[in-house]
Structures are given as structure tokens and as C-alpha cells.
Amino acid sequence: MDTEAVSRCPYSISVWYSSGGTRRPRQDGQSGHASPEPVALTSAPTATSKTVATVAASVSARSPRPPVWYGPWIADSRSDMRRTVSQQRLQTAVLPVALVVLATSCASGASAARPRVPHRLVPVVVSTDLAVGRNRLLLGRVDSTSGEPAVRAPSQDTDVALYDLAVAEGDPVAVVRARFFWAVPDRYGMFRADVTFTEAGPWAAELRPRGAQTTESRPRVEFEVRDESLTLEIGSTAPRSKTRTLADVGGDIARLTSDPHPDPRFYQTSIAGAMGMGVPFVVIFTSPAHCLTDLCLPALQRVKEVVADVTSLTVIHVEDYLDLDSPTPDVLDPVLGRWGLTSDTWVFAVTALGIVQAKFEASFEPGELFHEIQRLYGG
Question: How far apart are CA 128 and CA 132, in angstroms?
């Protein structure tokens, strides 16, 4: 990738940010897309063992805000998320969900965009919606020398140490077990941990081998915890969203999904229809062919595999974009805003009473979703 292409990618992200986030940017190298004028990259922050290993590489010198790499639906308050998507503004700067998988496309070949750290692997936060209370924290790892996602599984069990930076940067306030899994087999691995945040504000996380000496310095990644979740909270009532079905488009499934191998089962019932019938359901919001990460299609495929033998379960796929007849769709479905989505792939398990039982961002293990399906049926 040449220097111009490297600079073009973060530039398109920043243009998207300033325009209100209703039309997604295009990654460099896609045919048919206009190429914006390139801008210079700034140097990546230097991480040391005593500071946060922040790997968000490129920030325009003209903007004090970090770049937003993950999805176009972030806002800085719950009221903003209740607006239609076209009215929302990108105002929350959190660490990028897609950095784990966009590091190659936006950082490969740009030496100035690579952190200079004493550790080869540094953590990045994948989760974009962390709030006070219980959370499913996702962390990835990036190779500090190449800027690419780490592709090897850890050689031993791993813990996540959590630091409340509003209190002190000394000892962690909690150390919890982390489980490694492949979001995309042998390409993108993540760590997930069930964590509890006691207060809003700045926090940091550190991946460490289980049983490692606590005095050994390791890179940390900083992130913000909100007072309240932007996405629907577990235990809340799901919106009765009138999502589109095959009946709405004359059976033309290509108008409902960019999935290259769609399952018609996923487009029979709307969210409102499932709630009206009083049946449990699983809904996935994602855009397989128009994704800002490489996680959308694998997540949808994983849902298909998990529900294949649960034929009685209502499963719904909601495509992020309404204008799939366009070669470059960019009209977002307003339903995304009503569900408070903060990135381009979310899965929700909803009970027969319309209560959000579980939610998964970006990726999940098959067993996680299957367990929630069993719970939907009282198992």
C-alpha cells in the first residue's frame, strides 16, 4: 500500500465523522469510489510500561478528537440515540472496535502509525459500549512492529487486570479470567471477560498470563466507562421495530440483505411481528458485504450455524443499509438508532415477553449464543 492510500483511509473516516455519520466512508482501494485528497498522518502515541498502550494510530492534526473507526451510530447521550440515524452526530470518542481488523488496511506500510513500545503485542479495546455495572469486555492484540492483529492464540491462560484511573494507577481494582476465542479462525482472535465497573470515567485494562508476577510491567489500554449503556440494556424492553421482511419486498431477498448466501428463514418475521406473536427471537444487526470490519459475515455465519438445529426459534437479520440496490449503499436503517447500536455488528436474544436477555457485540463463541437460546426456552 502506498503512502497516499494509507493517508486516504483515516481522511475518509474524519470526513465521515464531521458530516454527521449518516453516510459511511469507503476504504481505500475500492473501485468506483472517489478518492479524497490525502492528509498527513500524525505519529502514533508512544506507549511505555507505565502508560496506556493506545494503538489508535492516525489523528488529523486539525482535530483534537481521536478517530472513530468502528461504526456510524455513536452519540454521547441516550437521547441522541433515540433520534433517527440521519440526525445523529458522531460525538463520542472511544477506542476502536475495528482497529483489530483495520490495522492492516489503514496502518500497514505506514511506519509513523506504528506504536514504539517495548512489548511486541499490545492490547486494544474492541468493545464500544461499556457502562457502569456488568459488561462483556472484548480485547484484541496488535503486533506493535507490524501494526497487524496478532494471529497466534496465547500459549497459556490469561487474566485481565482492571485499573480505575479516577482512583489511582497503582494496583488493579480487579483481576478476572479472560477467555480467548477466534472471531475469524486463525485470523482475528479476541479475549472476552465478564467484568463489573463500579463507576464511570477512565479505566485501563492489562492482559497478563495467569500467575504472572504482578510487579512485571505490561502495556495497558485505556478506555471510558459511561454511566449508562447506549445500546439496549439487559432487562429492558426491546422496541417494536417494524423491520422489513420478504413480504415487504415481493420476495426479493437481495433487497433485504447483502449476505452472499442468505437464509430465507431470517427474513420471514419482523421484530414487531415476533413481539406481537409473543415468541422469543434472536436478531442480528450487521451488513455482510458493506462492513467496516471483517467481522460481519463471520458473525452472521456463526448465527446460522448455532440456530441450524433450533428450527422453532425465530431468527431475524437486519441489514444496516436500506439502499442495497445501490452499488455503494449508504442509507442507514433508522432501526439501528432505536436499538442504540454503537458498531456494525450486534446480536440480541429477546424473550417471549420482549425483554432483552443478552447482547453480543462484534463476535461471540457459538456456545455463548447457544446458552442464551437455551435460556430463552427455559433451559
Answer: 13
